[in-house]
Each structure stands twice: as C-alpha cells, then as structure tokens.
Amino acid sequence: MKTFCEEVKMKSIFSEGSQITQLICCLLTLIPVFSYGAAVGWMSPMTLLLQSENSPRSEPLTDLEISWMASIPYLITLPSAWLLVVIADKIGRKFAILLVSLAGLGTWAILLSSLETWALITARALVGISASGSYVVFPIYIKEIGEDSIRGSLGCLIGVFHTGGNLFLYIIGDMLDYYTVLWICLSLPITHLILLTMMPETPSFLLKKGEDEKALKALAWLRCRSEDDVEVIKELEHTRREQENDAQSNKFLLKEIYNNKILFKAFQIALIAVLAREVCGAVPVLNFAGEIFTMASGGKELLLSPNQQAILLGSVQVVGSVFVSSIVEKSGRKNLLFFTSLLSALSMGALATWFLLQDLDIRATSWLPLATLCLCIFCDSAGLQPVSMVLAGEIFSFKYRGTVMGVTMSIASFSDFLQLLFFKPLTNEIGIFAAFYFFAAVCFFISIYVILCIPETRARTLEDIYGDLRKKEKREIREKEETA
Questions:
Q1: CB within 8 A of 312, min separation 6: which ones?
Q2: CA 409, CA 138: separation in Å to the nearest integer?
Q3: Widest CA span of the chain, in angstroms?
Q4: Could you give the CA distance from residue 25 to residue 28 in angstroms, rounded to a whole number?
Q5: How high is the pLDDT of residue 190?
Q6: pLDDT at 476
Q7: Residue 240 and residue 174: Cα distance in Å, rounded?
Q8: What average pLDDT does this structure show over 275-289?
Q9: Residue 241: pLDDT above 50?
C-alpha cells in the first residue's frame, strides 16, 4: 500500500494528505447499497408487469403474493442486522460487506433462475440482508476509514447511492424487458466482489485485533501519507485510546439504558425519530409507486405512464438526498426534521383527500397525486430518513450507539414488514384514502413531537444534549406535582 501511494503521489489529486483515496474507496465500497436501492425500486415497475396479462409468468401474481414479496425483506432485516453486527465485530468489516454483496448476488441470480412464487419470495428475502448491511455495516466502515473533516459527507453518500439505485431501476425497468433488467442488476454485485479484494480492512478493526502493523499501513494508504508520518501515528494512537476506554463497556447495555432515566429518554427520542421515517408513507409509496399512480389515473390516459411518474418520483428522491448532504450541517437537525415532517403531513393529507373525492365521484385536479407524492418523497430523502439516522447516532455515545441503532432498526423494519404486507389488502377493503390519512396523522404528530421533545444535536456535546433532557424532565416532574 505504501508503494501505491508513492506511485500516485506525483499526480496532484493524490498528493500527500489527499482525501481522494478515501473517497474512491467509499464510492467503490458502496456499490452494494446501489444494488439494494435497485432491489427496492424493482418492486414498482415489476409489480405492474408480474400482475399484468403480459407477465413473464404463465399466471399473474396475486395481491397476497406481491404483498409478501414487498414485505419479506423487512422481516429478514430483524435477525440479519444483529448477525451482521456480530460478524463485523468478530471477523471484520470487510467480511461483513462481502456477505452483503453475496446477498445481492443471490437476489438477482434467483430472480433470473426461476419465476416460481417461492423463488421470488426467497430472492426478496435476501434483500433484507442488503438492507441491514446498507444501514448497519456500511456506516461503520465509512466512519472508520474517513477523516473527521469529511466523515459526514461520506456518510451521506449512503443515501445518495440508495436513492440512485431506486431511480436507476425505475428507468431501466420502464425501458428494458424483464430479463435484461435482471442481467444488468446481476453485474453490480459481481463487479463489487472483484473490486472488494482491493479495498482495505478498517484500521480500527485491525488495531482491535492486535494487527498494529497492518493498521498502520492501511491508515497510511487511506491518508496518502507515509507510515512514519506524524499525523498518521497520532490518529492511530487516538483510535487506540478510544478502544481502551470502550473496553470497560457494560455488556448489558439495554438494561443500563432502561435503568437510566436520561438514557431511556434519549432512547425514546431515537426510536420515535427512526419510526417517523418508516411510518410517514414513503415505504409503501416507493414499493408500490407504479400501482398507486395507476389507481390515481382512474383508467384515464395520462401524459406520463405510471412507470414514468415513478421515475420522476425517484429523481425527486435523489435530489432530496443530495440536498440534505449540503445543508444538514447548516440548518440543524431539529429544524430540518420539523419542516419535513410538517410538509409530509400536509402532502399526505392532501393526497388522502384527493382519493376520497374520487371515491365520492367528485372531480379533483389530476396533477395533485403526482405533486403530493413528489413532495412526500422529497421530504423523506431530504429530512425524515437521513436526519433520523444522524440524530439517533448523535444522541448516544459510542458505547451505546451500536446497540441503540440495532434495536431501533429492528423495530422499524418490523413496522415496514407489517405495512407492506397489509397495505394492498387494507387499501382494497377500506380505501387507499384511509391509509394516507393515517400517514398524515403520524407525520403531524412527529412535527409536534420534534418541537416539544427533541433537542438540537448539531455541533453540541452529549453533556449539553443531556442537560436539555434533564431540564425537560425536571419541568415535567414539577408540572405533575403542581397538578397533583
């Protein structure tokens, strides 16, 4: 690795201390996240195809089969999230990433090999492993290879790659046939598996395993510096001290969080913030975008087809992801979460009312469904999704962060499983307007909760954040005593 840096150092972008190596490493490593985004987006155009008369199957899929295909990944995420964390901690971050890439390979390979219902559901189940890796393993890897000055920007690339994968599949799903789409998607994990052999293990993990020399070489390569560079040695020593402090961690962290009032309050905030994104309506919209637009058309001819409208939705999602990466450090977490929650509530409420008017045979503006769904998805990718994850990480120290992220992600994934399993049957029974009114109510509640309960975390220490929580707790106790 030292030789490589010496060779490329002569070029300006690879000059000593350049951050380009970290960026390239991050971009190449995140290919499975792009593949995962494509797997999520695959449901939208393929739901319409697999349930149509032109289905590549001999018999179109039923609503129940489609519901299981859409929901099963989120059920698998529950155990796979914990398993991948254990593997990443015991065997290595790079090996856990390898497993995530293999899961993506399995997804596309199974979809290519069979159109039987069991094969479709099994392939979709593997998407749950990709989901766990994308939001558990990859953030850990990026945190441990990136410098403090660019770590936040590199972390935001996860959302960009995820939404980019969605949009990519929407586009090729509308333009190409069923099997061509799958062959293209299969090439993504294959390419990543080849490139992964050139990616380094994180210096932090190598140091934890006692492989100090390898850790030094990996860090020097990532920083484009020599192994005897003062900055490299200083950073490695800082990482070593952090690990020595964390060695004293209590193994029963959930019990410790439950017994500590401030930690438990922080856990409640993290859980509600993460659940806000999952129950804001974005998950079923992204999985059933094409079908929702078909329902909205009411059999009328549209300027854009349902799939083309889904492409527009995906474009808005990518714009939102890029937008939040540029302003999240300036606007603050609380303001961004409040405004995106409130706008989501208004957009979901407007869409629900539009569908209700359709059921009552009252004419309504035809462009409203597209506009409101675009606004909802923009709010999700520009606030609800990234800010909730950032907030959950910032409100806990390193000691508790992994445990809290694992628990909140498991609960959130189970809520996604239930939503996608019952979304189509329930909307068929009680009307799609009821589902969107529910999403609107949740988003409105979250906007109020943000104002009343969630502290600002940007550029603040844990002591300051927990100081706010203690003040609120004392105020609540005093109010209870006054009303008693």
A1: 304, 370, 374
A2: 14
A3: 75
A4: 5
A5: 96
A6: 66
A7: 51
A8: 78
A9: yes
Question: 48 falls in which pLDDT band (50, 70, 90)?
Answer: confident
Distances (CA, A) of 393 to 111, 163, 246, 443: 35, 21, 16, 21
> Dihedral sign, CA of 16, 18, 20, 21?
positive
Per residue, the 3-state secondary structure of the chain, as one string, reads: CHHHHHHHCCCHHHCCCCCHHHHHHHHHHCHHHHHHHHHHHHHHHHHHHHCCCCCCCCCCCCHHHHHHHHHHHHHHHHHHHHHHHHHHHHCCHHHHHHHHHHHHHHHHHHHHHCCCHHHHHHHHHHHHHHHHHHHHHHHHHHHHHCCHHHHHHHHHHHHHHHHHHHHHHHHHHHHCCHHHHHHHHHHHHHHHHHHHCCCCCCHHHHHHCCCHHHHHHHHHHHHCCCCCCHHHHHHHHHHHHHHHHHCCCCCCHHHHHHHCHHHHHHHHHHHHHHHHHHCCCHHHHHHCHHHHHHHHHCCCCCCCCHHHHHHHHHHHHHHHHHHHHHHHHHHCHHHHHHHHHHHHHHHHHHHHHHHHHHHCCCCCCCCHHHHHHHHHHHHHHHHHHHHHHHHHHHCCCHHHHHHHHHHHHHHHHHHHHHHHHHHHHHHHHHCHHHHHHHHHHHHHHHHHHHHHHCCCCCCCCHHHHHHHHHHHHHHHHHHHHHHC
pLDDT exceeds 70 at position 50:
yes
* Residue 399 binned pLDDT confidence (cut-offs 50, 70, 90): low
Say which residue the tokens 């503006």 belong to. 365
**Residue 122: pLDDT over 90:** yes
The string of pLDDT tens digits covering residues 165-188 is 988 998 898 888 889 999 999 999
Average pLDDT over residues 346-358: 89
Closest CA to 23 of 167, 162, 199: 199
pLDDT in tens, 124-147: 999 999 988 888 788 778 878 877
Q: For residues 409 and 62, is the Cβ–Cβ distance under 8 A?
A: no
Q: Is the pLDDT of residue 101 over 90?
A: yes
**Range in 209-218, 402-411, 431-440 with the lowest mean pLDDT:** 402-411
Angle at 294 between CA 290 and CA 299, to 5 degrees: 160
Measured in degrees and rounded to the nearest 5, phi and psi for residue 14 equal -110, 25
Query: Which whole-number Å values give the CA distances from 400 to 157, 268, 406, 414, in the listed order?
Result: 24, 14, 10, 22
Determine contact, residues 180/93, Cβ cutoff 8 Å.
Answer: no
The span from the CA of 214 to the CA of 235, in Å, is 14
